[in-house]
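Good day; I would like, with your permission, to put a structural problem before you. A protein sequence and the structure tokens that stand for its backbone fold form the material at issue. Thank you for your consideration; the sequence and its tokens are set out here:
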Amino acid sequence: MLILAGLVVSAIFGLNIRQTLSYQIFTLLLGILLMSCISVLVFRGKFRFKRILPEYGTVGQKLEYRILLENLSPKEFNNLTLLDELATDLPSFEHFLKARDIQDKRRNFFDRIVGYPRLVSLIRKTRGGLIQPGKLETISGKDKIQQRITLIPVRRGYLRFATTAIGKCDPFGLFRRFKKYNHQDSLLVLPRLYEFPPINLAGRRKYQHGGVNLASSVGDSEEFISLRDYRPGDPMRSIHWRSYAKKGAPVVREYQDEYFSRLGLVLDTFAGGYTEIVFEEAVSVAASIAVSSLQQDSLLDLMFINNQVYRFTAGRGLAGVNNMLEILACVESAREENINELETLLLQHMNDSSGFICILLAWDKKRQNMIERLRSAGIPLMVYMISMSADSNGFGNMPLPDHVEYFQVLQAGDIEHSLQKKHRRKQ
């Protein structure tokens, strides 16, 4: 920029070459610019790339991955810049109008009306991450090197890598030419996690029909009690053949029924007119509870509605924490609100559940009726409501329940502070 400014100024003052020597400065600067342009145009390097990505990433947490760079030409290159790029899809006009940015409150009136900063923020979120460029000092001909790249994911879901570019700077450091290579990959980014206290519901263990296949060694499944005489209707696989041979009469093995703790994690996906920030925080809270609960000796059922009914079970002997987080990383908000369908799902599975952990996006009449119906059925409940406001006096003229032991309002954007505040109040 300094050279361009000097070029313009010297051109103005050097119009009359008989009265000033400014034209010599103009000629010198113009020659430097032309030499810089020509030098970057002759960059003819050929390269091959390979990304070595981690298995997962987490929203907001910096991660590093490696790019294996191979120089296919016999020439040595110095002072290169490696730039990895994510696929960028421009948001539709309808999406732009519906988008809400929490930073709009801090912007001036003109920026809020025009919406350009909001558009830039939306594009960055759609892209999904911020990648820092890497600098290569030297790469010899026909050589291979590894370069570490830093990535900061800003949203959950799959990040799509589109291209890898390598740039060559001219000797004066004025211009840089990039050669782009199509280099597609993907990385799954898990939701943001918060430090959640252990979940202690007062529910008791329930009998699980077919729990041996579902729970493996959880609870009291397949625990041998004793031998007894055969009764009509006992399955053949229960016969103890060694005792049958000694006694001369059928003897069967008797087992204790399968009882174990099974919690239901209910995610409210009916975002409706609520901001996207609230839904994203609800997903993060669900992921944090899943990590906390699956560390205990119990099963966890993730239940939500999204065009159809979903119920995923995780725990010892079944899917692990990572499988549950993969599901939450890709869950989307439902297009149409149907709290009654969610209530039907919970009532259908309440007999084999020890309790429900409900994560709600609002507190209205339908959600209140659903919670009260589950309470009247004697199901232990723990309810978290995600809201943009920390005021718990009431929402939409609907008073919050007085049972503070199972109901808590978490403020979006300040979840950790809300949890610490609740913990201090209990102490």
